[in-house]
From TrEMBL:
The gene is rnpA. This is Ribonuclease P protein component. GO terms for molecular function: 3'-tRNA processing endoribonuclease activity; ribonuclease P activity; tRNA binding. It comes from the Bacteria. Residues 52-66 have a biased composition (Polar residues). It comes from Saccharopolyspora rhizosphaerae. The keyword tRNA processing applies. Its EC number is 3.1.26.5.
Amino acid sequence: MLPTAARLTKNQDFRLVVRRGRRAGRPRLVVHVLRPDQYRARRASGEATPEAQANTAPTRDSTPSTRVGFVVSKAVGIAVVRHRVARRLRHLMRDRLPDLPAGTLVVVRALPPAADASSRELGADIDAALKKLRVRLPDGPDGS
């Protein structure tokens, strides 16, 4: 299960990541990534940043957490199939969270071929997309 602090839940955050972030398409999914340095400039302009919206309670650790959201539309399949795909993607991203820079926002959008894909294939697509976007930390499993 993905920790609550690692979930992207607000519609505005999804929109921000998809519109302002970079994306990498794969056969079964599209990964959108917005790095912290890309949205910190918004703070100077007076706009609300995702980190300000997410951290409503004061904490000792002021570093923003990496958060992930998923989009699995009806085009992927019936509800049972969509939920299965979402569960697989959540599990795969949970294992990759430590490899991403703190404060990174990620949206994973499943495409219809994801319905028939195995977890291994989905994981390979996620890894390839993250590698293409160059967001994994150097000590990550991809060795970049």
